[in-house]
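Appendix B. Raw example, untouched.
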Amino acid sequence: MKEAVAILTGGGPAPGMNTVVGSVSKIFLRNGYRVIGLHGGYSGLFSENPRTVDIDFLFADEIFSRGGSAVKMSRFKPTNEDFEKRFNINFFKDNNIKLLVTVGGDDTASTANRIAKFLEDKGFPVKNIHVPKTIDNDLPLPPGSPTFGYQTAKEAGVSIGLTVYEDARTSENWFIVCAMGRSAGHLAAGIGAACHYPMVIIPEMFYKTTISIEKIVNLVISSIIKRKIQGIPYGAAIVSEGVFHVLSDEEIKNSGINFTYDDHGHPELGKVSKAHIFNEMIEKKVKEIGLKVKSRPVEVGYEVRTVRPIGFDLVYCTLLGNGVYKLFKEGKSGCMVYVDPKGDVSPLYLKDLQGSDGKIHPRLVDIEGQRAQSLINNNLEFLTEADYDDAKKYVANPEKFDFYKILNW
């Protein structure tokens, strides 16, 4: 029987999933391996009858440039009981599987390690290599290296963001945009910077103060008033959905949102429109203080997850797929494949990325770095002490909307 490679995809979609799967498949097929796509993420490994597809060259070649994922995804996270009672070890034995390739984020990577250890304890060692994926760009890769899918998602988000900003100019209204990002603000910051939005709000900005909905609302109003002083009646603000992850339970309760939670304990932010919620709160606030402003909400989320990958990610994901084979032939396992900006491949071991608590912590926007500070100080528009006299034409207490005071910078 041929030696085989199994590939599964976990978490949510990101542009380039099919490019990784197609590239891994092609290089292993060329070298005589059978390639099995496992549908349903990890759920297939805990089922008596997993859904699989034998991937041949024609299948791999057809999917590699498409968005979405031809190997169907799942957020299933196995419990200890699943391992004890339902793990399908025969799937590995009957198919002579030598390598499990997992494509996903930190949760997918952690579960891959558990499976590899479980198989080794059962006397059937299988190598596992992980390909890091997320449009959030928050996996702790070395500086300057994006997670695959981020650049494409940002490009799609910028297309939406520029259209929204054109509408703002045309209608002389404001738009409140909310962008995906579970705990880091990379996507919102990237879109906002590219579109020259006068206000960008990400969780990393609140490192010197406790985040609250009132502060988020006041930051947007700070920008609205600043533009009124300048004689500009329109604008757009973008908020990262990650702010919800650092809001207190009381703040979330007061917002009126009732969250459900996924298998990993994360609030399912995709089920509610954060832009709508913020827009409602901003409209209420501007009415209270007597500002004449119309605003509209726009959510940027699922629209950017399954688009066709741009050239950057087509090349990057191809190198990652080829890198899986390179590491496998070198005997590496229990690692993520890493391709540096030069194209060199190396392993990143999960144990080296874990904090003292054993968790893989997200890579945040370096808000104090020159890149972020340049954009904040030169592109955003907000009230400071120098604007107080002019701002009093619109609000009695401009210091409440002072950008630096709100953030305690």
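End of appendix B.
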